[in-house]
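Question (not urgent): is this output format expected?
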Amino acid sequence: MKKDKQEKNRENDLLKEEIKAMRAHLMGLQQTIREKGLPIIVLVEGWAAAGKGSLVNELISELDPRFYNVFSPAAAPEAEARYPFLYPYAKAMPENGKIMFYDSGWMEDCVRKLLRREITWDTYKKRLRAVNEFERQLRDGGYLVLKLFLDIDKDEQEKRLRALRDHYETAWRVTEEDLWQHREYKLFGKAYEDFMDKTGEVIPWHVLDGDKKTRAAHKALKLLIEMVEKALEEGRYVGKPFEEDFPLQKLPKLADVDLSPTISDEAYKKELKKLQKRLGELHNVIYRKKIPVILCYEGWDAAGKGGNIRRIARPLDPRGFDVMPIASPTPDELHRQYLWRFWKRLPRSGHICIFDRTWYGRVMVERLEGFCSEDDWKRAYNEINEFERQLTDWGAVVLKFWIHIDQDTQLARFTDRQNTPEKQWKLTDEDWRNREKWPQYEEAIDEMLQKTSTENAPWFIIESNDKKYARIKTLKIVIEALEKAIEEKL
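Got this back:
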C-alpha cells in the first residue's frame, strides 16, 4: 500500500513538472499566435464542482493577459436572455491572434433549459443544429476550437459540493441548480452524452477525468498545444463551399423587373398616412408580444434606401427600434469572423432593427473587390441562410429588400446630387466606381437573390424608379408580415 502511494506521488510530481514545462511552451507560442493572427476558442464544459474554473486557471496561468480573455456566461447580463441563445457566445468571439476561454457555454445552456422544460424538444433540436452550424462556421473561418468536458462521478461531486457548502467563503458557489443537478445525476449524464454525441462531428469533444485534477490539466494543455502547433505549421483552415437544400423562393433576374410602376402624389399621401398609422399600432403589439423584427436594406447607390427607411422609422417609438448603418468594417471587425459585427447588433425581443446594408456585402462588394477569397464568398451563401434560419427559429421576422432602379435613373440622381450643394455629401468617388461595375454587380446580385431568398427570410425586389411607389410597397410588405407574426402568436 505504501509503495503504491509513493508511486502515485512520483507520478503526480512528474505530471506537475510536465505541466510547468507545457505552460512555458504555450506562453512561448502565444507570440507566434499573435503574429499569425490565429484566433482560438477553448470551451470548458462539465459537471458542477468538476473544476472548470480551476482548469481554466491552469491553462491561463502563464499566458500574457493582454492576449486572452475568459468569458463566463453565468456572469452575462440577464438582458441577454432576450437575444438568440448563441448571441452571448458569438458576441464574445475572439479577434485574430487572441484566445477566448469559455467557462461553460452552449452545452450547459441547452441541457439545463431542456431539463428545466424551459425549451421544448423541438427547440432543443433546432439549437443542436445551430450549434453545429456555428462551430462549423468558426472552423471554416479559420478559428481553432477545442471542446473539453470535465467528467466526475456522483460520489465525487457530492463530496466537492459538501466541501464548498461547509466553508463560509465558498458556500455561495453552490447553487440550487447545482444541487438539483446532483439529485438528477443520471438524467443529466444522459443529456450531456446526447449533446456531445450530436455535436461532436464537426469539432470533436474531449472528455477529461475530473476526479484527477492534475491529469486533467495535463491532458488539456497537451491537447491545446498540439492543436496550436498543427495550425501554425499548416496555416489557418479555410472551409470549402457547400450548399444545403434550403426552401428557396424563385425571383426574377433584375434585368427582367418592370420598373414602370408609379403612384400619384395624392394617392401616396393618403396611403402613407394610413400605413404609417397601422405600423405604429403594430409596433406596440410586437413589443408586448416580444417579437423581434429585422429589416434588411440593400440596393443600388441612389436607389432611395435612406428615404425608404425614414418612412418606415417615422411612426415607430424611438425606444423600440434602431437603424444600423453598415459601413466598411472597422479593424476589430476585420479581425473576426465576418458575421460577428452583425451578431452584436441584433435587436432584443420586441424590438425592430433596420440594417442599412447588411451581411450580404460578403457576396457583393467583398466578392467583387477581392476583400475575401472565392471559397469565402461562395461558402457565405449557405452560412447566411443558416444565420437567418437561426434568427427565425428564435422567433424573429426577417425581411430583406433590394431597392432597385435602372442605370438611367441612377445617373440622373447622381447628377442631381452633384449639382445640389446640400446633397453633394451623398455622392462619393466609390459610387462612380461601383457604377462602372454595374454588369458585374448585377450578376452577383442575381446570384445572391436566387440563393438566399428562403421561405423563412425572403427577399423582396422593390421597384424604386418612383421612390414614392417603393416606400408604399415596402410599408405594405412590413405590415403584412407583422400582422401574420402577431396572428401566429395568438
